[in-house]
Amino acid sequence: MGKALLGVLVALLAPAVAAAQGISRAESWGAVATPAPGPVRIIGSTGLGCIAGAVELPDDGPGWQSVRVSRNRHWGHPAMVAWVQEFAGRARAQGFPDLWIGDLSQPRGGPMTYGHASHQAGIDADIWLDVNPKPRVPAAQRENIPVVSLVLPDGSAVDPARFTDRHAALIRLAAEMPGLDRLLVNPAIKQELCRRHSGQAWLRRVRPWRGHDSHMHIRMSCPAGQPECRGIAPPPPGDGCDATLAWWFSPEARRPSPRPPGPPPQMPAACAAVLGAR
User: How far apart, in Å, do the first and last CA atoms of the chain sit?
Assistant: First the structure.
């Protein structure tokens, strides 16, 4: 290939390469304050994706109060926002106090500069495992609410002084909600749920993951009409109270391997239009 032709190709490809690098930068997504215009479109996965046409969960409503709203991370697919509202209403009907609602997604999804590797496609939500009565307070006063772990410091089990039947009941209520793909909690919380409710069908959707000692991570299935949404394999059959759970307490699991060297994965190319839309 001649140098002249090579130079032409490089010039043609440079904008695409730059765009690919730009859309993979978390700072680019975090700087956008508003959603991309609709129609609603999920592109990619919760760990590498974006969303157009996202809607915002109100700061509060019947049964919930959003926390740390200054982050601007309470956006999602309309089905995700409706799921949170429906769940809060069901919890309220069962006598639970208002729920603290943590991060959903950014206005256009995409990677975040801190806090999450997922939550990128508008179908994730964090719901705090706080079942204490709480007053209605302005959103500005919900910025620095302390997060209380329900797990012992060594991660071996739940804290018996904090984890109660009400926590288990709230998790079960969420796990039995329609539209849920899976629900992530700390391995010690999953272990305690297995001890109390082994064999229950709803436990299949409750999966162990690092962190998640003070909240449950809700992940919806890809909504209907979203062919570009990329889900993951469903949870395996059974209640998950088996050797796969025991592995989370092994030395191997407690010391995860670092990510192999090399460039980070790139966002789907179609997300460039979502990021740049006006």
Answer: 40
